[in-house]
Amino acid sequence: MKQLTVISGKGGTGKTTFTSSFAALAKNAVIADCDVDAADMHLILQPEISETQDFYGLDVASIDKELCTDCGICVSSCRFDAICSDNVVDTYKCEGCGVCEHVCPEDAVRMIAKKAGEYYCSNTRLGPLVHAKLGVGEEASGKLVSDVRRRASELAEQSGKDLIIVDGPPGTGCAVIAAITGTDQVLVVTEPTKSGVHDLERVVQVARHFRIPVAVCINKCDINDRLSASIAEYCKNNDIPVLGLLPYDNVVIESMVAGRSVVEYSNGEFSEGIRSVWNAVVNLLSVGQKTDMIPFLK
Questions:
Q1: Of 16, 79, 190, 224, whose CB count within 10 A is highest?
Q2: 99: closest CA among 71, 79, 70?
Q3: Domain residues of the chain, as ranges?
């Protein structure tokens, strides 16, 4: 079983555009939407949910009012101001550190599990999809990403799928690390903007830190020819294959409005460009060898 993760360094580069089209082109894949803070793959794949699992992130403090003597030690000890003067815990401020439980002389404070979101297994026209929704203001997105990927791996084994396509989150933080560790190939979809160039370099550093093969696709390459050339030069100097340079095209917006991937919606130039990138990705997956497998985050 192979795993491909598509990431972007920043939002808005076209990551989901490519991932959804790859899902349409793949013959035997499970799709995992690991952008748990702002999932959007479901808007294109229109899934029918078959399984729902609760996700529990950080434990939060809970105060037993019958045992509490209003000594105020927990209030003064909390560095996040999560405990109000009437001993009510603000669960959005609580970081789950457990100091209040440790210092309470009456054992009135307990750390309890709090539901922080859900993840789902769904059926779509393009194959099985595992996706999630993190609650508003919740943390531990990396842990939820790991749960999504683990369930996708289980589905792939159960159904005999030979590829998992991961739509990764933007940025370079914990959720991105959880999305790329242990994968066979990372594809970075970037754009020729100042922030695009900056965040491309950062996310390449993260992938290489974990010794994962990296390839790049430059989307909307014609909005700034100079920066596109700069990205290509950076990739050349760092031995990173550039699998495609695709121009800005309104067909992307049209396909999203229609609830279809680009390759399902159109057979035009942009679709052919995505197909070319996909063929290059398949070639990398077939010949590439991963070293030092790193397990999912626990």
A1: 190
A2: 79
A3: 2-56+118-287, 58-112
Return the pLDDT at 291: 35
> What is d(CA 196, CA 12) in angstroms, rounded to the nearest whole number?
9
Distances in Å between the alpha carbon of 293 and those of 5, 172, 289? 15, 20, 10
Q: Do domains 2-56+118-287 and 58-112 have the same CATH topology?
A: no
| Contact assessment for residue 295 and residue 210, using Cβ atoms and an 8 Å cutoff | no
* Average pLDDT of the segment spanning 125-141: 90
Give the pLDDT confidence of 163-206 residue by residue, as tens digits.
999 999 998 889 999 999 999 999 999 999 999 999 999 999 99
Determine whether domain 58-112 maps to CATH 3.40.190.80: no
For the chain, percent of residues with pLDDT exceeding 90: 83
Q: Which residues contact 286 (CB under 8 A, 6 or more apart)?
A: none
Q: Is the dihedral of CA 86, 92, 93, 95 positive or negative?
A: positive
Calpha distance 96→89 (Å, rounded): 11
Regarding the domain with residue range 2-56+118-287, which homologous superfamily does it belong to in the CATH classification? P-loop containing nucleotide triphosphate hydrolases (3.40.50.300)
pLDDT, residue 292, reads 35
